[in-house]
Amino acid sequence: MTEREQQLIHAAYAEVEKHQEKVESDYYRLKYHMMPPVGLLNDPNGFIQFNGTYHLFYQWNPFKTGHGAKFWGHYTSADLVHWNHEKIALAPSEWFEKNGCYSGSAVEHDGKMLLFYTGNVKDEEGNRESYQCLAASADGMHFDKKGPVINLPEQGYTAHFRDPKVWEKDGKWYMVIGAQSEAEEGKVVLYRSANLTDWELLGEMTGSNSEQLGEFGYMWECPDLISLDGKDVLIVSPQGLAPEGDLYNNLYQAGYFVGSLDYETAKFSHGAFTELDRGFEFYAPQTTEDDKGRRLLFGWMGMPEENEEDHPTIEHGWIHTMTLPRELKLINDKLYQIPVQELTKLRQTETTAENIQLSNEAQSFEEIAGDALELLITSSGSREFSIEINIHDNAKVIYNADDKKLSLERISFANGNWERRRCELASLSELRIFLDTSSVEIFANGGEEVFTARIYPEKSNQKISFSGQGNVSIKKWELSL
Ligand code: FRU
């Protein structure tokens, strides 16, 4: 370890210790989500199951609740539910990463864990350089930096060239990178390697102003190419889309294209872009495949540059959290996100309210309240239901069977006004809602549509009420680790 690396790691731990009490005394600390011990957390990185253990790294700025020279923080888990916070994996100590060990991924090869990440470098004038770097580990805990393996191509792209995601196919290694063309269009490029150190640029897979898309943003971040149900699915986070009705209402988007990748020419033929999540805070997701063959996803429950300075947790020296882990399934070319089955381990006391006749008058039930819980609402009649769920007078989940729209409304933490996100949903059979002290994740119809958001209700208000039309059954579990 270099001296600079030791200094940085030491300074980061000192920051954790200095703020620990203030951070931990925050009511909005979540009860069953991964958070930074202090400072700012953003993207999930290096998600992998290695020797049976799940590893999730994260973009971390220990020194403030804003962005900056990122570290890789590190969590491990045997079951995707109980996570241990590990020692810092990467600190931005070397010339090729001095302004941040930016996002990237992990693979296993010859018994080693290999991390690919972007070294972010800026000079005094703010000119940027980027390097795709490699770090290797025998035990998944200590990482040996090997330095850059890919430089910015000589022409075609700006230095917004980052977030390598690596996978193996038919004995070869492939990497997608999020890029910006010189004309400032968002792109995804594909590389290939036989040995994981020498990489060849195969070409551009797709992007803004390519054959299959019109204008589609000025930068694409965090690409991930997965194969599900015989199709290739490109998950990516484009920046620069204008809102279109209920679509693209957040500052930046995260979504996917379903198609087919030609591994020789790099051409990806694909359909339209679909947002993965309809809520307020969801960005830069990353997936891995585990030993059960499941395709698992974590997202960052945050939105860069959109009112980040208004989150009330900042007073307590920390900001942002990860989503819950979700299993992906491709059903009729649509990505479903299903909370991983292991999350049922969080369930404590169960309460059921059967056959509730919803009406315009809001009803609440003594036992169906709290700040860390799972709700399962299903139709108990054969007919459709319309529902409005009021959560802590701070958020509302609304399905209207007449206009076929599902919405999440909340009181904005930036200005105190109600704000809404909404999507179409042809019919509603089930709502599964995970509430934590300052988050909500809503899964409709077994993951057909998902809404993820931060909410900051009053601590004393743990009431939930229901109104609408139709008959429903409500199950509630208190959740705890
Ligand atoms: C996405 C992102 C990535 C980058 C990282 C820096 O949120 O901007 O493109 O690698 O965050 O923290």
Q: How does this structure look, described?
A:
- With 481 residues, the chain is mainly beta.
- The chain has 2 domains: 3-339, Glycosyl hydrolase domain, family 43 (Tachylectin-2, Chain A), CATH 2.115.10; 341-479, Jelly Rolls.
- It contains 1 helix and 34 strands.
- It is globular.
- Bound molecules: beta-D-fructofuranose.
- It comes from Bacillus taeanensis.
- It is found in: Cytoplasm.
Outline of the structure:
The chain has 481 residues and is mainly beta. The chain folds into two domains: 3-339, Tachylectin-2, Chain A; 341-479, Sandwich (Jelly Rolls).
* Strand residue percentage: over 45%
Radius of gyration: 22 Å
CATH class of the largest domain: Mainly Beta
The low-pLDDT segments are none
User: What is the molecular shape?
Assistant: globular
Structural class: mainly beta
Helix content: under 10%
Can you say what the CATH homologous superfamily of the largest domain is?
Glycosyl hydrolase domain, family 43
Count of individual helical segments: 1
Note the gap between the termini: 35 Å
The figure for the number of domains is 2
Total count of strands = 34
Domain Glycosyl hydrolase family 32 N-terminal: 33-339
Keywords: Carbohydrate metabolism, Cytoplasm, Glycosidase, Hydrolase
GO cellular component, one term: cytoplasm
Pathway: Glycan biosynthesis; sucrose metabolism
